[in-house]
Amino acid sequence: MRFTTPAEVMKYALALAERGRGSVEPNPMVGAVIVDRELRRVSEGYHARFGGPHAEAMAISATNEIPPGSTIYVTLEPCAHHGKTPPCAEAIVQAGIRNVMIGSRDPARHGTISGVNVLRSAGISVETGLLADECKLLIRPFRKLKRTGLPYIHAKWAMTLDGRIATRTGSSQWISNEQSREYVHQLRGIVDAVVIGKGTAEADNPRLTARPAGPRNAMRIIFDTRATLRPDSKLFQAAEEHPVLIVCGENASVDNTARLEKAGAEIFRCPLDDEGRPDVVPVLEHLGERELTNLLVEGGAGLLGSMLDRNAIDEVHVFIAPKLVGGRNALPSIGGSGIAEMPDAIQLEQLRTDRFGDDLFVGGLIGNKSYDE
Questions:
Q1: Verdict on whether the full-model pTM lies above 0.85
Q2: Is 25 a catalytic residue?
Q3: Closest C-alpha to 22, from 193, 155, 216
Q4: How confident is the model over 178-198, as pLDDT tens digits?
Q5: pLDDT tens digit string along 124-144?
Q6: Pick the catalytic residue: 18, 25, 44, 56?
Q7: Containing H/E element for 24?
Q8: Contact (CB, 8 A) for 221 and 195
């Protein structure tokens, strides 16, 4: 394979990196390509699993000979610290590669040491910023975790054309069609946790597992203020294999929490917010300390509203069914306090749309985040 431009090489490295989605977290997805002076591919690699070899090491080991004047293109700055694997910057130096093209600098803080400095100190030519926006977008959840200590929040909901997630009686199964639900199962298979409120747990009695299973085994997290979820819920039927975390208020009954612990749940107590719900901030801080990188919040309206009011949501996945239910008491998709003035409404970025049968999918990012800088 011969590339025509440096940007084409980096795009290929980005596509390689995507293969690690769901398998490398809390590490970032990274792709690497080694090319000769004529931009002919010599070898390639990507970070395939957490704890396994990094992309640069995979690319170096995939060839018996690196031609003089070759360049390695890597989507993320090579690491210079010792972790589960040796430093990639040192591997590049030892391989005799004299040119390095980097997409994004490493957002993680590793003291004063950096891969770029190690490479340049060894006399290697280093250029940074090739397709920087695309490379940063690839690792946006990793950037948030490293810059803020908080997990990346994917908000997902299915709604009717008139913006309802349930009828006035609470009926909600099913709004979206089977194709949309298959996509949701794919999402569940690549995140660290699936999060819902107690109302959703009681109304739908879901398992919240990925079917078929994906590369990750997501924790199920339920916001249950008084810890009154029924222990015979389907959530507990596979608690040993799929962990359950109950988030409750500090004053939740000890008897209630003990009953849920006996059913297989872990309990996390936290203060309540102004609406009497568990405050999402200390919960997210706790999950960030546990290095959970991606959370899929599936509702209901109260929990999604709390997340939005706290500016915690980073990305949305919305399924719109061509159905109408009406009714002023039918549930909206997002509750909470909300935005007061329309000019302040949140505008999605990187918008993407798709069709799943008759359902319309709309996804996008919530921008103006400090960790994007």
A1: yes
A2: no
A3: 216
A4: 999 999 999 999 999 999 999
A5: 999 999 999 999 999 999 999
A6: 56
A7: none
A8: yes
